[in-house]
Structure formats: C-alpha cells, structure tokens
Amino acid sequence: MLGCVIHGQDDLRVEELPVPEPAPGQALVAVRYGGVCGSDLHYWRHGGVGDFRLREPMLLGHEVVGTVLAYGSPSPASPAAGTAVAVHPASPCGACPECVDGRRNVCRDTRYLGSAARFPHVQGGFAARVVVPAEQVRPLPEGLELRRAALAEPLSVALHAVRRAGAVRGRHVLVTGAGPIGCLVVAAARAAGAARITVTDLLPAALEYARLAGADTVVRADDPDDPRWPSEVDVAVEASGVAAGLDTCLRLVRRGGVVVQLGILPPGPSPFAGNLVVSREIELRGAFRFDTEFDDALRLLAAEPAFDGLVSAVVPVREAGAAFALAADRSRSCKVLLDFGTS
To answer: What angle do the packed helices 320-328 and 38-46 form, to 10 degrees?
Structure first.
C-alpha cells in the first residue's frame, strides 16, 4: 500500500508500506480521504510543529475517513465491517488529572495520530490501510458522504474553540485568520448563534472562503483604513497563529471580553499586549484539539451541504507533493484532500 511519510524538513515521501494487521481492540480501516492539515504542512516545511520536533520518520495525517475492513477482535458496539467511518485521532489515557477532570483533550499522556509530541512518534493515518483503536471509529450519520466527512477533525477543533469562548449567541465574533480552521470557526460560531461574524486575513481568496463559511464582514488585515473594521467585538478567536493576529484580537475585543488563542504560535516567546489583558480585564483562553466535539461535528456536517465548498481540491496520493504545495498556497486553496482510493 502507499503511505505519506515525513523524514525531515522538505523530505516528504510517498512510500510502499506493508499492510498492517489489526490486534485485539483495533480496527483495520481502508482510508479513502485524508485532509492535509496545517500541522502536516509544518512537519513538511519546518520539521516540526511548535515545540514538537521530528526525531524519526513518521506517517503523517490525522484527518482521515474510510471504511472498516476488519477487527482484531469482534465487538457488538463497533460498526460492522463495510461501514463508512471517520477516525477520531486521539487516544487519551483516561487516568491523568486532566482526563479525570473531563478535559481529555489536554491529556498529559495522550496519543494523537501523526504527532511527534512523544517518542517514538505516533504514526498517522495517511496510508491506504491503517489500524486504530476500535473505539476511535465513528459511523457516519445518514446522508453524510466520505468527502465532506473528511472535515470532521478540523471542524471539531473549531467547535471546541467556540465552546471555549463561552456563550456567543447574539454576539459579535471576530476571527483572525481565514485558513481552513478559521473558516470552520466561522461555521461553528454561526451554528452557535453568533449575531455577527467579522473575519480578517491578508489574502482575498481566503476571505472569500470565509464568506462562503458564513462570515458577515471580511476585512484585509493589512488595510487599517477599511471602514468595515469593527470598533469592538464581544468575542475574538485568533486562528492565524501569528502574534499580529493575537494583537488584533486583544485591541478589538470589548472590556471584559474573551479572546481564544487557537492558532499555534511559533516556538519560543511571543510578544502580546499583556497590559490590555490587565486594564480591560480581558479573558485570554487557549483552545487545543477537542474531545466529544467530534461526534457533534459529524452531525453538523450531515446537516449542512454548504461545507462542500470548503474542499478546494482532491488529489491522488501519488501526487502528495503537489497536494502539500497546493495546501500551503492559501491564495489557491482552502482544504485539500488526499485520495487514497486511487492507490
């Protein structure tokens, strides 16, 4: 079978790999689509994500959907062989203080598909066949096809970020960064009842995707004189992963408002307007991955065909290099999927 393996910075290879066998408690899944995530791009372009650095070759990918082929041991609760499924990429330990406290998304001993956060690395899902814990496969709701279901993982991230913001119903939400995650934050905020959503980005093409996702107002981040800039907002979600985006959020959120830092900032210290956090009593909250939001994301995707417009390209796995280059060029793409059904 074919798989996408990262060996180091700028060293992505499509390799022939052995087909794995599921052990007891595992499911063997025939992967159809895998979404290229920003973290996959970071491993490819920089050899790491934030403070997580590559130390060995790693199969990339954590946004995968496909069909169950077999189990290492049968379970009445598991989807039957032949069922179309999405794969939840996280395996929290269930025993650490965070898991016990109901915050499994920040489990200190979690395993996450395609992550170099621990060593040996957790191999990912960008292969024609993968084995995963059986409890991580989720049958697709009726009417949800695999192509759209490939958005479940990033939409879960967006849903978690919006929930970290608290109540957004009837409020004005600012989103800085209109990449795939930022656009899905727009959709999540709209589903949560936001009254108005403003999105900023440097790229006109990205802002058009944000508009498609449900943004009311889009503004070029490098045009401070644009009259569409809000004077203040109730909630801000920083999804660009750059310090300038966080600065914009802190300066535009109202006194006592909430800023959610979702984008992964560069390694090391990042400057930010800390005095505003003090003088305006702004609540600055982090948002990392997700937990039960995965099931909510599948239901939302099944109910809303408009999500299809955020998938800008589907590329055969043999052309993974071109797919990654396209995904890295936000002037030409939003979400790019690898198609393993052609391998």
So the answer is: 100
Q: What is the pLDDT of residues 304-319, one digit of tens each?
A: 999 999 999 999 999 9
Q: Would residue 146 count as lying in a domain?
A: no
Residues 159 and 133 reside in one and the same domain: no
Q: Are residues 52 and 177 in the same domain?
A: no
Range(s) of the domain holding residue 186: 155-286
- Asked whether residue 291 is domain-assigned, the answer is no
Residue 271 has pLDDT above 70, yes or no: yes
Give the pair of three-digit tokens for residue 253: 């959120």
In whole angstroms, what is the distance from residue 244 CA to residue 64 CA?
32
* Residue 332 and residue 255 share a domain: no
Task: Using alpha carbons, select from 1, 2, 75 the residue that is nearest to residue 317.
Answer: 2
What are the tens digits of pLDDT across the range 5-40? 999 999 999 999 999 999 999 999 999 999 999 999
